[in-house]
Amino acid sequence: MAFQYTSEFHENILGFCNNIYNSEGGAHITGFKTAFTGIINSYARELGILKDKDANFNGADVRNGMTAVVSVKHPDPRFEGQTKTKLDNQDANRATAKVTNDEVPLYFDKNLEVLKTVISCAEKAAKIRKAEEKAKTNLLTKQKFSFDSNGKLANCESKNPEECEVFIVEGDSAGGSAKTARNRRTQAILPIRGKILNVEKASIDKALANAEIKTMINAFGCGFSEGYGNDFDITKLRYDKIIIMADADVDGAHIRTLLLTFFFRYMRPLIEEGYVYSAVPPLYKLTRGTTSRVAYSDEERDRISAEMRGGNPNVTINISRFKGLGEMDAHELWETTMDPNTRTLRRITLDDAVKADATFTVLMGEKVEPRKEFIEQRAKYAVNLDY
Length: 387
Hints:
Layout: E1 2-5, E2 12-17, E3 20-22, H1 27-46, H2 59-63, E4 66-72, H3 90-110, H4 112-141, E5 165-170, H5 172-181, E6 187-192, H6 204-209, H7 211-220, E7 241-245, H8 250-266, H9 268-272, E8 276-279, E9 284-288, E10 291-295, H10 298-309, E11 318-321, H11 330-338, E12 345-347, H12 353-364, H13 368-378
Parallel strand pairs: 2-4, 5-6, 5-7, 7-8
Antiparallel strand pairs: 1-4, 2-3, 8-12, 9-10, 9-11
Helix pairs in contact: 1-3, 5-11
């Protein structure tokens, strides 16, 4: 067996029997987990880190951040099912537990600072778990689902998730227009006030105490999954599409980034399985007499302007820049951004989770220098900060 700890807030333990990967683990993984948890708790009490009145760390606390490989050789392996995904031999449980109990203390006895670091990780994980449990209790004791009763979620009438979608909009003005414009049967509107908390810099208890974040967790209905997986269940998601509808300017881009940081850290499967989208609002409105059209880019603006002139350079085309979604009337918002038949949506994808994790840490984390270096290296590629 081999293990190491990383800064990730989850465990990754891989089991093998006779060089066959057991994706669902089995007896050998259980033996390792149980023995390792007992070892860490024993050391924590021996060192006085856990007092008599303190409860033991649970298995998730101890393994939070752990990456491990447990491989066994067995002359007569038994597996649950035909796919060999889970080892069923109980002697493998006893064997891995014995090796863990024999060998791991020998290492920790010689590497006390490493042991203290592992226990510190367990302490932090236990604190996060307790904060999550408290926050979860608070969420469950409050009304989970409302039809705009608190000025936030204006839910749709349908209860069929496959046809429902929720728009996250910034501000009361845009929220009001969106509520008027929407298809009430299938489209829900969730206004947020201002820029939400940057969860990359916040502790779990602070994040889950944030009003906007609590509202989103309640509205989506699938729980949250930071650190332990907790109660996150994507099958309970109430909407087939979660659409971020923000202004096409720098502030709108910032809001999108903060929301995507929240989804990546707390609800990553929503991105991985393709439920998160970004709406593409128009940038320009072009008017000639009583005829109006919209453009979503500078190139489209120029093309439409030429078309509306019809080859006559003396024709005047009035071009106005949309300052924000809030200044659109309901009809414009529906036709340009919300109507499934005419709108443009960008699905948020995750091609490389490890690279994305590192990028979020650099751009949204506490350290300034890595972010400054990232921006300086890429500043030459910036042409237009708008969509």
